[in-house]
DNA sequence: GCCAGAAGGACCC
DNA sequence: ACCCAGGGTCCTTCTATC
């Protein structure tokens, strides 16, 4: 730490203060980068936040030094060994290349800001940011010219752009427009993967084939359709895999597109000069390490330095890096995945008043519990997160014998954790619950059963090759230096067991988790319901014909009503009483849906996904929803007639996705992309946009 | 040697 | 004047157990 400062710290200290916004992957074209850096530096200097950043940077510098030293110590023999390892691995990875799919990544341009401008045209042409003085979510292009960007605190943004207009976030609005765009996406790929409110991946291989049309033409068409439907513009990237498609969508943004042909040479050429930071999953730290230790700044150099990467990084990390160098990425439509945790945290002005801290803790527990109830979740591991006045983050966890979800339980255990830290000055408290009961794959809850994590790990080996951003993301953390011994050669113990992962049962549920919540809500509640059903609930089975008739005739009474019922159901996750379902209806006062609900258990999770098969249909898809529910009803009728009753419910659920909703069969459930949507507040998914119906 | 937990981080939107 | 979010995922390391 001593050396770097003295030498380079001449006249412009801000140059060494790299933050996310001055160093981002999104192009900051006409921006006076130096000025931005200076302002950010000036405004941050001396703050606790700044000091903490410096502390972290110092740690990274140490890491870099440490790795450099290790790299320097590699003997010629070592290097030749690792060169072989790398060469072999590169060949293996390359052999997994799949150029048969055409992926399209759509990214709405400055989404929140664009939506706000749509609803308030007077904002047009003026620099504007969505967010608050403490943090902004996104900025329009006028504001970006000043260096203003997402994740920048508002007070700094205002300094950069004094005329900046701040608009508070309104997720209802964004969800509404997001649904409109998804309706368009649906037409091109019913299994599209929503990555967030404003991003999605579509496998357009089939459409291209069916219409014998190029990816570029689809992109063109999709963009104009999105514009027609929403009045918003988007940018699109078309490439043989998701990782590349994502990079491509950024190239001609805003309102543009870029197509990378499904050709090995084209891919290699493209990737060769591509800065590593453009790759999803390679952030500031990884970039610094790769650059600082190995001098790698383009993807191509990943291959050139393959021996070093294999020598100094863990398997998963080196595999990832090499994949990037080869331009490989996800080409399959991944299985759905469960939500693993749920949390709530709040920042406040730092205090060391214990009573106050306990109060904050109780408030957060309350919020978290409410969110959990909404989704019918309960978990055994409770993690307390603390951020001290000096921005240091700590976590403290306990794993309990029983699953908890009530505010009281949460507070009780969280207080114990907090007590142990006590004399302390905090600026943030957070609570997270994980280790859900469904983790075990549902039904049994047998703790010895393979967990999802295990499942994904085993799949990991194969996935490694075609990782998409998710894997990327994780890989970075490997940077954490693998201890030297493990650096060795263990390149092949990956080939583990893909098959043993659990029973198909759990996977069926996975299907619906594309966006954060849906997932879990289904799991928790549905599991119970299914159990109930399969055991005895036949009573709930009502007159099918009756139900069918009503649904068919009153499409307008659309299912959004059902979702109301459903939410009330979910609100009582603790209540495993089988009568619950029977009671609900009276509360809702909607007998028709009551029947439907009881009988089919079909409702739109989070007003978005079919509780039965996981199909995704925003509430604006009124007709599609009607069709969809009709499908399930017909299916049910058929079963009734053929004598197959509820007893077959469970197996049936697993199969349904295969062909439900007619043409749009969703055998692959689009799970969300890796990261998808986690940044959105959960609430945004509950709030339904008032449009649909 | 493997497994579970706990703690700390990187990254994404 | 305002002074750096919140929700999630995955990975690695370390330890205590079995």
Automatic annotation (TrEMBL):
Region Disordered: list its residue ranges.
544-591, 657-693
Q: Which EC numbers does the record give?
A: 2.7.7.7
Q: Per its Swiss-Prot or TrEMBL entry, what cofactor is needed?
A: Mg(2+)
Give me the stretches of Basic and acidic residues compositional bias.
Answer: 546-583
The segment(s) forming the UBZ3-type domain are 603-640
Instruction: Identify the residues that the record assigns to the UmuC domain, covering every copy.
Output: 103-283
GO BP annotation list: DNA repair; DNA replication; error-prone translesion synthesis
Cross-referenced Gene3D superfamilies, in alphabetical order?
Answer: 1.10.150.810, 3.30.70.270, 3.40.1170.60, DNA polymerase, Y-family, little finger domain
GO CC term, one of those recorded? nucleus
Q: What class of enzyme is it?
A: transferase
A Gene Ontology molecular function term for this protein is: zinc ion binding
Q: What does it catalyze?
A: DNA(n) + a 2'-deoxyribonucleoside 5'-triphosphate = DNA(n+1) + diphosphate
Q: Work out whether the entry's keyword set contains Repeat.
A: no
Q: What is its main location?
A: nucleus
Pfam families membership: IMS (PF00817), IMS_C (PF11799), zf_UBZ (PF18439)
Ranges annotated as spanning the membrane: none
Q: Does the keyword Magnesium apply?
A: yes
Q: Where in the cell is it found?
A: Nucleus
Query: What are the entry keywords?
Result: DNA damage, DNA repair, DNA replication, DNA-binding, DNA-directed DNA polymerase, Magnesium, Metal-binding, Mutator protein, Nucleotidyltransferase, Nucleus, Transferase, Zinc, Zinc-finger
For this chain, the family text in UniProt reads: Belongs to the DNA polymerase type-Y family.
Give the PANTHER family listed for this entry: DNA POLYMERASE KAPPA (PTHR11076:SF33), DNA REPAIR POLYMERASE UMUC / TRANSFERASE FAMILY MEMBER (PTHR11076)
State the name under which the record lists this protein. DNA polymerase kappa
